[in-house]
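User: Quick sanity check before I run a bigger batch. Here is a single chain. Can you write out its predicted 3D structure?
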Amino acid sequence: MGSPAVWRASIVVLIAALLADVAHARPFVPDNDAVVLERLPEKGDAALTHLKRMRAALIANPRDLDIALPVARSAIDAARTFGDPRFLGQAQAALAPWWTGYDIPVAVLLLRATLKQSQHDFDGALADLDHLLAAQPSLAQGRLTRATVHSVIGRYADARRDCATLVGRVAAIVVAACDAAPASLSGHAAAAYETLRQTLADAGGNAEVRAWASTLAAEIAARRGDPATAERHFRTALAIDPRDPYLKGAYADFLLDHERPRDVLALLRDDERNDALLLRLALAEQGLADHAASFAKHREALAARFDAARRRGDAVHRREEARFRLAIEHDARAALALARDNWAVQREPADLRILIEAAQSTGDAATLKIVADWIIAHHLDDAILMPRAERAR
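Assistant: Done. Predicted structure follows.
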């Protein structure tokens, strides 16, 4: 929604900045003139204009770290905002002089790991972080980033160990939010939510971090079958950061689950640039007869965007494409193939959900067993997923 990995990478970049004391990808050459290489965001975006200027300065001084790091951070944030992996390529290009090896500044190594995470190269991200933390085990930014990666790929015990090392070294709200995701997905949802709730009740904390923590609280409450509490947290987070794309995607999914498509339209009416949010807009329009024309337009746009991403070799939005193929294109086999490929690298509740739905639609017993085994092994507490998994069994 944007990719969760991109969102978490962006959050980690933000928190790292708050805590801090301190091989290019091969070019894609299209085989015909009809291939869309990129979709330029709307003109007049101040952040993108600034990013363009910084990139121009970096071209003139490619080894200037004081320019390269802000370019990479801004490009990752743009990828999150617009749901466009093209910006991840810009971030990698900014770090090109330091893309291999480990004899590089700590700030670069940390950001390189963050970028690899956002590109779904989780093994590469962990290799960088393991090297970094072997040399500097007390580095809070490294622990937080590694916890994030471990949580995204389903290594919850490892994630919680890294979060535990942050106690007393960073703000309590950061520790609580770090631990909440892995704890809530491994049999400790009630305790994780209560700790997060108590921490949020305190007035302190950076606004962006509070928005992050409130979003996590909303997701946990929704998974525990408490929609009223979930909505309260979603609205609190939106009041802090009404433009956050991950938050808006999570809230849109919540609204879709509770059959409130018109609320989704109101929430996302200005978000057609972001692929993941456009998907949710189309899902809301799909069942509304008075929005048939806009649904058709958005369906066509999504098909073109996913096709362009596939031609570029981007795999960041496999989960979103699987959902598009299943729910909008009604191509269950294509959806299952995408969902299985996605599950091989990323294992969050939304990844599990599309895997269940695609496997049920195709009657794939082997995949459904993978789902059931995962839920049992991790004691998952999810009011939406568990009934579906039970029906599948």
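The chain is about 70% helix and 0% strand.

User: Great, the batch can go ahead then.
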